[in-house]
Amino acid sequence: MKVLVIGSGAREHALVQKFLAEPQVSQVVAAPGNAGMSAQVSTWDVDVSDPEAIADLAERGSFDLVVVGPELPLVNGAADAIRARGIACFGPSAAAAQLEGSKAFAKEIMAAAGVPTATSITCGSTDEVVRALDDFGPPYVVKDDGLAGGKGVVVTEDRAEAQTHAEACLAKGSDVVIEEFLDGPEVSLFVITDGNVAVPFLAAQDHKRVGDGDTGLNTGGMGSYVPLTWADRDLVAQIMEQVARPTIAEMAHRGMPFAGVLYCGLALTSQGIRVVEFNARFGDPEIQAVLRLLESPLAPLLRAAATGELAEQPDLVWSQDAAVCVVIAAEGYPGDVVSGDEVHGLNDAESIPGVAVVHAGTARSGDQIVTSGGRVLSITARGKDLAAACERAYRAVAAVKIRGSHNRSDIAAAARDGAITIPQ
Ligand code: AMP
Ligand code: GLY
Q1: Which of 92, 213, 418, 424 is deepest in the core (most CB within 10 A)?
Q2: Would you state the CATH architecture of domain 2-90?
Q3: Domain 322-416: CATH class, spelled out
Q4: Which protein residues are within 6 Å of ligand 1, measured from CB?
Q5: How far is residue 197's CA from residue 262's CA, in Å, rounded to a whole number?
Q6: Which CATH number fits domain 183-312: 3.40.350.10, 3.40.50.1820, 3.30.470.20, 3.40.50.300?
Q7: Measured between alpha carbons, how far is residue 397 from residues 10, 152, 218, 285, 346 in Å?
Q8: Ligand 2 centre distance from Cα of residue 287 (Å)
Q9: Which CATH architecture has domain 119-179?
Q10: For each of the chain's 424 residues, which pLDDT tens digit applies?
Q11: How far apart are CA 328 and CA 235, in angstroms?
């Protein structure tokens, strides 16, 4: 099987590494890729925002499967363009990707499907914002309705900050969604679906805030781990029943079947499971950790999802180990990022047992790898339990030297220490 991976982040590099280890896969190409991917596979240039350009590449390389990593090409219709050329594509249509592309659309689907989520009001003017903030009270949750790369959400006790964010969204032409605050730990579950049959991965947890102890600004994600040692054994079954299956059925019922990965972002609240958001692609950095434990081949699974044949796939096999992913970010992230700093110590990090390094914001400058984006590297480690995986991951993080870089030092720590509880 010849596989084309679209994207340039750590998520896509992790997918590439998994595919390279699978006997079913004869060739992997990444477009546009990054400096880490180009050391392992061919990388082809492409404008990921341009669906026809992506479809042209897919056709030129006679690929058997295209895996679209990020949300932007999906929302723009890359999967539709690729399928129109008769090529199997893992990723939903533009219509179905609205589950991620519009928070208001996602709320409408959830209401129709009876899926539990935070109550919300979509606002198109400052007056409506002021009224909604009054109605909900603190803590305020204010969301840009459109795509915002994980940075469109402000959760704050500070009313002025909430209103300022809402007005900034309105000023750039987006609606604003204001919603009820959800207490309780967050969970990410990736559900592979062909639009009908649905297969869950292991549930994982992301760390969205930039600082230790969940402080500071929201980011695209600073680290992740799996398994959720603190969760109910039947958590995944509950999420499938209460969230994933009804949502997939509602999308099919509307004639816009969702085929690809339905990323269920959830809060486990005192009132039960609540959807925080849906995404139409794998979560970054959660998938970097989750893939370390997937022993079954991924490419045939994703191809079956793309071609409506998921029912014929064997059950997935998972390692009993734990995996932890720590993101190393460039100076300034998640604000204005400094680029061009040299990355040292990669070989030392990768020589630690159980450790794998995938690249995100990296570029090549002569023989040197340099930073070129906010999240620079994802360091993943496998171990027999979370404590072992954490220890290896942080040993590898310490081996990497990048001027001005930062990372959280508490990824998976609360789970490892038994300090996560679901509010009663
Ligand atoms: P989203 O882009 O919708 O995933 O939001 C980003 C992050 O903001 C989430 O991962 C949560 O940490 C936080 N967040 C979003 N919605 C809520 C909510 N209703 N209550 C509490 N925190 C939230
Ligand atoms: N880790 C959060 C996301 O991928 O949206």
Answers
A1: 92
A2: 3-Layer(aba) Sandwich (3.40)
A3: alpha beta
A4: 118, 141, 143, 150, 153, 155, 179-182, 186, 208, 218, 265, 276-277
A5: 12
A6: 3.30.470.20
A7: 15, 28, 21, 15, 9
A8: 9
A9: 2-Layer Sandwich (3.30)
A10: 999 999 999 999 999 999 999 999 999 999 999 999 999 999 999 999 999 999 999 999 999 999 999 999 999 999 999 999 999 999 999 999 999 998 889 999 999 999 999 999 999 999 999 999 999 999 999 998 877 665 688 999 999 999 999 999 999 888 999 999 999 999 999 999 999 999 999 999 999 999 999 999 889 999 999 999 999 999 999 999 999 999 999 999 999 999 999 999 999 999 999 999 999 999 999 999 999 999 999 999 999 999 999 999 999 999 999 999 999 999 999 999 999 999 999 999 999 999 999 999 999 999 999 999 999 999 999 999 999 999 999 999 999 999 999 999 999 999 999 999 988 8
A11: 30
